[in-house]
């Protein structure tokens, strides 16, 4: 049972829900959809997952070509660590696969905005393990012919997120070639068709996706 203080707090936030909804959703909705890479490019969407603050973590990623076809996917359980380390470990593993397969024109995309800024802007990090991962990433990036690093909201990173969730169930690292896991297949098809989501901005800085979907032009 919730303490009385919490009950009263919930009552205050839930009063006049329609009025709150109209007041907070004052900005235009943001359309979010997965985007195909250009011809000759390979796109990696990566993600990390962590259960709890320093809980069981896993990583995952999906490579697709300019036709939005699934090329390769990976997932792995990485033990107990933070969500930030899981995100950077997912990117590092993806880059290792890029090098192994000799891909040069690569688009890297994840939903961890802080990590993308660390890589793109060269921001310093205090955590020793984080510095090690970032250092390895910075050694790999110059080896690529062309590389783009971007942030996308979670709704545009669903395939990688699902791969990371699958990683929790694995006892050893796994790679899929050409045919993704069943749980990822439907997402890959929706992304290829341009299915997207509308995100509405709220005053508290959060986003809520609209139950409706749209087809990206």
Automatic annotation (TrEMBL):
Q: Which organism is it from?
A: Hevea brasiliensis
Ranges for domain RNase H type-1 come to 45-165
Any one GO MF term held by the record is: RNA-DNA hybrid ribonuclease activity
Q: What is this protein's name? A: RNase H type-1 domain-containing protein
PANTHER family named among the record's database cross-references = OS05G0353850 PROTEIN (PTHR47723), REVERSE TRANSCRIPTASE-LIKE PROTEIN (PTHR47723:SF23)
Q: Which Pfam families match?
A: RVT_3
